[in-house]
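Hey, I'm writing a tutorial for new members on how sequence and structure tokens pair up, and I'd like a real worked example in the thread rather than a made-up one. If someone can provide the structure for the chain below, I'll link this post from the tutorial.
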Amino acid sequence: MLFFKRRKARSAVSVAILASLAFLALAVWGWGVPLETIGNFFLISTVLILGLILAAVVMVMFIKLIQRFFHRD
């Protein structure tokens, strides 16, 4: 069917990135937000996301260690 094709995850990610870039361009052009401020927000967001990823990795490693400890024979 033409109208009910299955969407790929790649297209959703690319649309989300494009929408984010459009919003940032609107903030710079329409509201006069300096590029330095947008760069600072980007840096802060990147550090926070990397912190969350690191915390998740540590938690998974801890859970695997606990599982290995309790399933020893």
